[in-house]
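Hello,

Following up on my earlier ticket. Below are the four sequence lines again, exactly as submitted.
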Amino acid sequence: MRKFGLHFGLLLAVAVILLPPLWVLRTSLVPESLSYSTDLMPAFTTGNYADLFAKNHFGTFYLNSIIVSVGSVLLALPFAATTGYAFARFQTGGRFARFLVLATQMLPPVALVLPAFAILRGVGLTNSLTGLVIVYSALNLPFLSWILMGFFKGIPVDLEWAAMTDGTTAWGAFWRIVLPVSLPGLAAAGVLGFILSWNEFLFALVLSGPRTSTIPVALAALQTSNGVQIGKVSAGVVLAILPLVIASRFIQRFIIQGLTFGSVK
Amino acid sequence: MRKFGLHFGLLLAVAVILLPPLWVLRTSLVPESLSYSTDLMPAFTTGNYADLFAKNHFGTFYLNSIIVSVGSVLLALPFAATTGYAFARFQTGGRFARFLVLATQMLPPVALVLPAFAILRGVGLTNSLTGLVIVYSALNLPFLSWILMGFFKGIPVDLEWAAMTDGTTAWGAFWRIVLPVSLPGLAAAGVLGFILSWNEFLFALVLSGPRTSTIPVALAALQTSNGVQIGKVSAGVVLAILPLVIASRFIQRFIIQGLTFGSVK
Amino acid sequence: MASIELSRVSKLYANGIVGVRDVDLRIEDGEFIIFLGPSGCGKSTLLRTIAGLEGISSGEVRIAGQLVNNVAPRDRNIAVVFQSYALYPHMTVWQNMAFGIKMRGAAAAEIETKVQEAVELLGLTGLLDRKPGALSGGQRQRVALGRAIVRDPQAFLLDEPLSNLDAQLRAEMRLELVKLHRRLGRTTVHVTHDQVEAMTMGDRICIMREGRLIQAGAPLEVYANPADTFVAKFLASPPMNLIAGELVEAGGGALSVKACDEIFPVPDMHRAAYAGYAGKPVIFGVRSEDFYESPQEPHYHPVTVKVVAIEALGPENILIGQLGQTRPIEIAARLTRHFRAAIGSSVTLYVDARPMHLFDVETTKVIARPPLPVTRIAP
Amino acid sequence: MASIELSRVSKLYANGIVGVRDVDLRIEDGEFIIFLGPSGCGKSTLLRTIAGLEGISSGEVRIAGQLVNNVAPRDRNIAVVFQSYALYPHMTVWQNMAFGIKMRGAAAAEIETKVQEAVELLGLTGLLDRKPGALSGGQRQRVALGRAIVRDPQAFLLDEPLSNLDAQLRAEMRLELVKLHRRLGRTTVHVTHDQVEAMTMGDRICIMREGRLIQAGAPLEVYANPADTFVAKFLASPPMNLIAGELVEAGGGALSVKACDEIFPVPDMHRAAYAGYAGKPVIFGVRSEDFYESPQEPHYHPVTVKVVAIEALGPENILIGQLGQTRPIEIAARLTRHFRAAIGSSVTLYVDARPMHLFDVETTKVIARPPLPVTRIAP
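Thanks for your patience. The regenerated structure is below:
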C-alpha cells in the first residue's frame, strides 16, 4: 500500500513535469482556432510553423541566433581558456583578480545594457550581429573562465612537467597536453555559453534591430503584437528549444562529465 | 624596458576595467545638468539619490527586491539541498533525472514567462511579491540543486557512516554532519541565488505591478520614461550594485571557497 | 562483549560486481581478528556489512547471538574506525569524542568522565579544543580511536586504520592497538592489506580473495600451513618460492621433487602424505628463510644458485638467485647479514625441506600433510 | 651519461617555506643514488630542481659539468618518472612512449626502433594501442619507465616511482629497476621514503630532513655509521634502540654506559674514541639485531628484559621489552623465529656491543669512532 502511494506520487510528479512541454508541443500542431480546446488533438496542422517562417521571418531570426550564439562562444572560448589556465596554475592577479571575475557576473544586466548600447553606437555596431557577438562574448567570458579554471585545476601539474621534460615548452605543454585532456571541459563550457547566448533576451532586445533580432526577441514580439497567437507562440517555443534538445542529446554525457567541475580522473 | 611596457599595459588594463564604474559613481553624485561635463567633479550633490527615494519610490522597490531575493533563496534552498543530496548520494532518478535538472536551466526565459504569468493569474498572484518569490524559487531551484550536488559529492561518505554508527539515523547524519560541513557551499549557493534573483529583469517586468516592481524594473523605467536622466540612472545603478558589493566583501572568501565546486578538504 | 557470526554472507552490487561471496565465520567474544587481502578482495565490504553500513544480499549476520540483518548501524552498538578517520571537521576533538554517547542520551557528567578516560588512555590532553584540521595524521588517528572507545561498544571494527601513517608511526600504533585490545578485551575486527600487521596483531587471520574467505587461522599456523599458493605468496615478503616440478619415487619408498634440474629429497615425515602424488606434476613451495648459507643440520639439502642480486637490508641479506640451468627460475633466499657473494657467481645454499609444501598444479591448493608442530606464543 | 653537481642549492618558496637548504652533492656519471627522507623533507623538491621544473633560489646545478640554472627542462636531456606516472591520458601507450623523441624531431624510423626496443625490454608488447586508463597500476608504471627510456636521456630522475604499487609488485619492480640501471648504465636519482628501497637499490643514499642533506654514503656504511639519531632511527625497522645514559669509567681505563639500571661495558676497540666523554651523559644506540637469545660469543653482554609483546613475523620474531626497573624504557630486539616467551615474563638477552654508537645528548650527532670493517657486496 505504501509502495503504491509512492509510485502514484512519482507518476504524478512526472506528469506535472512533462505535461506542460508536451502541451506546448500539442498546441503548436493544432490550428489557432482550436488551441484552447480541451481535446487531446482536435486537428493536426503544421500551419503554425509554416506561418512563422513565411510571415514572421523566423528563418532569418533562427540564423541570427545561431550566428550570434556560435560566434560569441568561438570568440570567448580562447580567451576563457587562457584566463582560466592562468588562474588555475599561476598566482596571476591573486585572489582579488579571481573575485573580480566573479564580481562582473554579479552586475545587474539592466545596468549594463545602456552602457553597452552607448559603446556599440559609438562604433556603429548597433543593430548588427557583430555587435551582439562581441557583447555576448564579453558577458560569457567571466563565467567560462571560471568553469575552465576549475577544469584546469583538476589536471595534475605532473602531466605538464612530464611534457616539459619530454621536450616541449610551457606553451607546448598547454597546447599538446592540457588542451586535449580538457576537451570535455571545453565542450561543456562551450555548450553552456551557447545556451546562455541563445536564450538571452534583454541585450538582444535593446541592441538588435528588426532584421537582426534573435529568437527570444522574435518570441516576445509574437506575444505582444496584437494579442497572443498561442499556436504560433507554441510553435516558436518548440523551435527555440529544438536545437538545445538536439545538441544536448548528443552531448548529455559530455556535459554531465564536464560539469562535475574539474574532476578529470 | 620590456618590464616597463608590461607594467604600463597592466595599468591601462586596470584603468579600462575600473574607470566605467568609477565614472558612474561620479555621475551619480553630480547634478543632472553637469552630468556630461568632462570635469572630474564639477559639483557635489546627493540630490539624485534623494530624488530617487522621494519621487521614484526607490525605497519601496528596494524593499521589494530584498524581500523577493531573500524570500526566494530561503524557499528554494531546503529543496535544493535535499535534491542535491539525493543526487549526490543515491541513484535517485539516475543520469536522466540529473540531466533533466540541467535541461530546465536551458529553456529560454522568454518561453517561460508567459506560462508563468498565466499560472500566477490563475491563482491571483500577479502583481504580488509572493508570486515573484515563488517563481524565482522555481527558476533557481535546478541551478542551486546542481551546485549543492557538487558540494555534497565532495563530502566523504565515511563521515555519514561514522555518524550512523555513532548513533544517528541517516537523516540525523545529514542534519548534524553533512549540513554543517557544507555551510560554505550553502552560503555560496544562497548568495548566487540572491544575486540571480536580485538582477532578474524579464520576469519581474511581466509579473510585477507598479507597487511591486523590483530594482531592475525601476532602473529600466528610469531609462525610458521621458528621456534618460543620466544622474538618476547612475544613482540607481550604484544603489543596485551596493548590496552586492557589501555582501560580497563579507563573503568573498566564502564564495570562492564554495565555488570551487565540491572540494571540501 | 560480543561474538560475531557470519553465515553464508554474500553481497552483490547492483552493477553485478560481487563484494563478498558466501562467507562463513564465527568471531569469538573478545577475539582480535584480522581481515587480510589485496585491495578489492572484499575485506572492507565485509567489515561494513558487520557494521550495517551496507546491506547484504543473502546470509545472516549475528552479533552477540542476535540476528542483525535488519538492524540499523546505530542499534548494533559497534564502533568503526575508518581509514580516512572520518572525524567531523566542524567539531572540536572533544565534541568528536563526545558525539557518540551524546547521541545515546548520556548525562553530561557521564560524558565528561568517559571522554576524560579515553583522553588519558590515548594521551590526547591538550588537543581537546582543536579542530581535526589542526591535527597531525597520528593525532587524528588517536582521536578516531578515542571516539570509538568513548562509546564503549560491543565490538571495534577497524578499516585499515594505520595505512595513512608513516612507517615508524605505523609500527608504534600497531603495538598500541594490541595493548589497547588486551586492556579493553573487546571483540575487534581489523582490516588490512599489510602482511606485517596481519602476522603480529591478531589472534586469527582471515585471508580473503575476490570476495571469498580463503583461509582463517592463527597467524603462525596460517604461515606454516597455507591453504593454497595465493596464501603462500601473499603472507610473506619475499613470497614463498614456488617451483614447478614433479614428484618422483627415489627407491626404498623415498620421494623426491624433481624441479629445475635439481632433486629435492622429500623428508621421511611427509612421505605418507605425499605418496599418492608420486609421478605427478606438483608445485614445490619453500620459504625464503628455509635457505641457509651453511649445512647447520645434516638433513639440509645443498643446491647451487647463480646470484642475480643481493639486497642487503642491514639486519639480513636477501639473495635473489637463479635455480637450474636449462629453464632457470628466480628464487629468493633470506640469509644472514654476513653473507657475501659476487653478482653472477654461483653459490651453494642449503635447503631445510621439512617445512616444505606441495601444491596441486591445477587447483593451486595445498596437498594436505600433517602440520609441523607450531609453538603458540603465550599467553 | 652525465654527472650531476649541486653546489649550495637552496629553494625558498614565496610563502617563506624552505624546500631545500644549502645542499652540496656530486652524483657521479652512471651512479644510482637514492634521496631518502620522510615526507616534506625536500627530496622531491631537490629532484625537481635538477630537472629544472622548479627554479632554485641560490646555488648552482651542473649537469655533465655544464651550469644549467637557466636551462629549460627540455634542454637538460633528463627524463623524469613521476609518482603519479603522469601518462598522457589522451594518447595510446605507443604515443606516450614516442612523444619525447618526436618532440626532439627524430625520424619516424628511429622512433619506431627506439620504442620497439623499450617495449621489448619492459614486456609491454600487446599494450601499445591501449590508453593509460585501461592499464593496471603495474603496467602504467612500466609505460612511464618506457617513456623515459625511449628518450635515451643523460640521467633518470625517479620520484617515488614504486609507491603506488602493492607490496609484491613493489618488491619485483625494485629488482627490475636495479637490473635496468645495470643494463643502461645511466646516472639515476631515485627518490623514496621507503627504507628497504634505499638500502637495496642504490650505490649511495642521501638522507634528507627538513630540506637539509644529513648524510650521504653507501647504504651499508650509512647503516653501520649513522651521522645522528635521526638517521639511526630512520634507516631501520624497528629503529635503532636509543637509550639515554651516562658514560662512566670502570677502572683500568675501561668504559661503561650506565643506563636503565644496567651497566653496558664499552668494547675495548672503542675505548680511545670515547674516552673524552667519560662522566658525561650520552645516548647509547644499539640496533635490534644486535640482541641475541644465547651468548654465542663470549663478549656478548647479558641484560634482563620484561616481555611486552612478541611480534612473530614468520621468519623472525621481534621482541618488544622493557629494560630497567626504575624508569624502564621500551626496546625492540630482532630474534629468531624459534624464540618463545610469555608476555610479562622476564628473559635474558645478550647484547653484542661492538656495533654500538654513542650520540651527543644535545646535538644528537654521533660521537665519532673508527668504523667497523664493512664488506662491500660485490661488484
